[in-house]
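Record type: ASSEMBLY
Status: queued
Input:
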Amino acid sequence: MKFAWEHVVGALGLVLFAVGQYQGLFVSPAEREMGDVARILYVHVPSAWLALVAFTCAFVAAAGTLFTGRKGFDALLEASSEVGVASGVLLMITGALFARPTWGVFWSWDARLTTTAILVLTFFGVVVLRSLVPDPDKRATWSAVVTIFAAINVPITYYSVDWWRSIHQMRSDAEAMSGSIRSVLMLNALAFLLLGTWLIAQRYRLARAHARAEEPLPLPREEAAS
Amino acid sequence: MSPIVASVLIATTGRIVGGWEYVWGAYGVTWVLLGGYALSLWWRRRAAPEEAP
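Status: finished
Output:
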């Protein structure tokens, strides 16, 4: 494997991740009302942000695929959709583990939770669709169209706590958080974004490698008449 | 800490007490999922047909 820029990003992300996780578990103070359970937010919120960034990236790649037909956009769509789904699954598991001690249940059919579940499931559908369509051109077009429809749910999920009455807490105002909690949250968020960038870059290269292998071999040329 | 003691503490202090098992669970899932996905990418790239330019 050749050296590439994303390994620098990944290494920096890993260092920040280690520091951020340690601070989240052992250094950050317990929250005033949620106590130590609030430490879950240091993994739950960054995974939510990473999922939304990855799905938005997939949407941009889908638009790029439809407008330009460039294979690079299709590979980016594949990469960011898969990383978004992985991050979305993490978001939902950590959310359930946060909900149980704070709400008393692992799951509620609340607007934020429901739209998030639909978002992750539809992008999982994009990943499955790509594995089922053998023709590269049809796969690129179909998955780009489905991705654009799936991405409509990104702003709906983000603003769901404002638009509907929700058990989920409102979007936090950075100014309302105490400095120590905010700094640990931002450190973990940055680490997740850097690691997410590394994961997307790795997955992108894998998709490009598969796309190159699918390209038809050039037809043999006739030798020039001597 | 028993659920009864935790309930009494929440009622008297207004703060959720304990819950470290959920905290460790959330962090453990995060490490396993991110690490496992990174490993799967490494493995799939090794098995990929050829390196992209």
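Annotation: Chain A has a mean pLDDT of 91.
Annotation: The CA atoms of residues 160 and 192 of chain A lie 23 Å apart.
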